[in-house]
Design a protein that fits this description.
The protein has helices spanning 14-26, 45-52, 107-128; strands at 3-8, 31-36, 76-80, 94-97. With 135 residues, the chain is of the alpha/beta class.
């Protein structure tokens, strides 16, 4: 099954939301993770609150660094608006999603970023495996 990694600078907001959506949509057997080039150590409280609106609980998530990842070759590494190239993370495919960091945006703008991440995660999963996003 495919392995997907989402990366942003702090691993506290965008990449955490992407991981949450991917875990819900991909189902069992997939490897889904997120990390940061300079992790903050916490998941942003607003990300957790806005994801809860969509039925996804980030309470068990934690902000982590790239050095904590398993030593695998990822099928897809997605960077989220941070320009992180992650050259030391082996990947078959690299994708940049140029998205604003929503942590300081008003609620409706935060939701727009969240919903755009959801849409892009669904598209990515369908691209990697047509049956993945139907679960």
């Amino acid at each position: 099954m495919p392995a997907i990694l989402f990366v942003c600078v702090e691993n506290s907001c965008r990449s955490q939301m992407a991981e949450g959506f991917a875990r819900r949509l991909a189902g069992p057997g997939w490897t889904v993770a997120s990390a940061g080039s300079h992790p903050s150590g916490t998941v942003h409280s607003r990300a957790a609150a806005f994801m809860k609106e969509r039925g996804i609980d980030l309470a068990s998530h934690r902000s982590k660094g790239l050095d904590e990842l398993p030593p695998i070759t990822w099928d897809a590494v997605v960077t989220l608006g941070c320009g992180d190239a992650c050259p030391h993370v082996p990947a078959r495919r690299r994708i940049e999603w140029d998205l604003l960091d929503p942590k300081d945006l008003p609620g409706e703008d935060f939701r727009r970023v969240r919903d755009e991440i959801d849409r892009r995660v669904g598209d990515l999963l369908r691209d990697l495996s047509p049956s993945a996003a139907s679960s």
